[in-house]
Structure prediction request, 143 residues.
Amino acid sequence: MSFEVRAVHRRARMSAYKARRVLDLIRGRSVNQALDDLRHDRHRAARFIYKVLASAVANALQNPSVRANRLVVSKTFAQDGPPLPGGMRLRPGPQGRAMPIKRRTCHIHVHVADPQASAAEPEAPVAEPVAAETAESAGGGEE
Prediction:
């Protein structure tokens, strides 16, 4: 059973389409290879995705059974976020109209998995319940 963790960058200031172009490059690769590819990629989105991937790796390494060299980028996707608030900016439209400028954002999700690590954490020993006093032996019963 594989162990999977994720990291999310919410409201990244770019369109989801531009982020998806870079996410498609790293999906299914080993984490070391993906980080190296992102470090040398020329797209602006690569810097954001590099940070998200590094955060996902740090989250995964909190589990002692996970090895960094076995991690694989299992899932990546970008969803449309809310448009940026604050003032309407306009650009010229057809026939003298004005069209709003859409300042897009996206949510970048990166999941990394270790196929050989166990997902179950070691359970703490459960203490035996102490015999609770009943209402009759405590003297609080009805008369």
Remarks:
- The CA atoms of residues 55 and 61 lie 10 Å apart.
